[in-house]
Amino acid sequence: MKSALKKKLFVTAVALSFAMAVPAAGIAGDTIKLGVAGAQSGDLASYGLPTVKAAELVVAEYNAKGGINGKKVELLIEDDVCKPEVATNTATKLVTDGVDVVLGHICSGATKAALPIYKEAGVVVMSPSATNPGLTQSGDYPNFFRTIASDDAQAKTEVDFAINVIGAKKIAVIHDKGDYGKGLAEFAKTFIEKSGKAEVVLFEGVTPGAVDYTAIVQKIKRKGADAVIFGGYHPEASKIISMMKKKRMTTTFISDDGVKDDTFIKVAGKNAEGVYASGPQDNSTNPVSVAAIAAHKKAYNSDPGAFYENAYSAALALLNAIEKAGSTDMAAVVKALQTEKVETPVGNINFDAKGDAVGVGFAMYKVENGKYVEVK
Fold first, then answer.
1. 293-313 per-position pLDDT tens digit
2. What is the residue range of 222's domain?
3. Is 122 exposed, middle or buried (0-12, 13-18, 19+ CB in 10 A)?
């Protein structure tokens, strides 16, 4: 009898020690750690800083209501300067600091470099702006999501606009050789060739950060292009369009959401007038978007910058998924993102099996009187 009792107590003790060794499902830490990664300094800081502000506002809103399941949300902010080699260090730092989910990265190349680190750590990542199609379409990163449409959709929007609205017949497609810019340009080239309505008269990459882009502008002029589609970011675009205007070229300049930024207009000045760029669809009639923009103006006394609405939406989606899942476990958060809809500035969204937001698309914008205006 005594022996049986000892055996029973021993089994119970072993069971209890095992239960203690295996953490219960749910939110383990004292706080929920939301990482924010992107360019917060350097030439592309104007893309990353709005994401930080969006995260700050969403986190403040959640914490004012008591957090999630009684736990406050803590921000971990890291700068990757939009460079892949820095992004790996940024991701490692966030993982080491115990991040639960990450809002970012901003640039496609940096995102691609960081994703394997997050995947190995079981961390869900959501970008407001990384549009390279392979990030979701490759199937390599089940932990990656985004609140912006991919470059194939963006390139299609630009090409359709160039051919069917502008009436372009000869199109020069140039890019900055990066994952984002080159990827978009390759899609644009393919769509032009498939259209049968226009031809690609030049397809070439430029070196980011170059002082002068006279050579590529001369090639565009010699080829007789009536439109240019540029894949890349505002520093290069502003120099190229300024050189084109200096040479009195009337070639229509069309670019992407890497150029649809007020910084491009500030740098290019009067040369920005008439430039077209694709960007996230207009959400000005969405009450959640209206409230998010008003919150930014109240907190920072300024209008929000590039990708702010997409970042605000990503922060809401990530925290909503944790709340609905009652857990920061990757599988639970992924399931919630795919099945639970959430009201955001970019719409009432959830995500497909690849990680793309359902119902999010692009529109075309034109610089008029120093501001981007949607082309209806």
1. 999 999 999 999 999 999 999
2. 152-256
3. middle
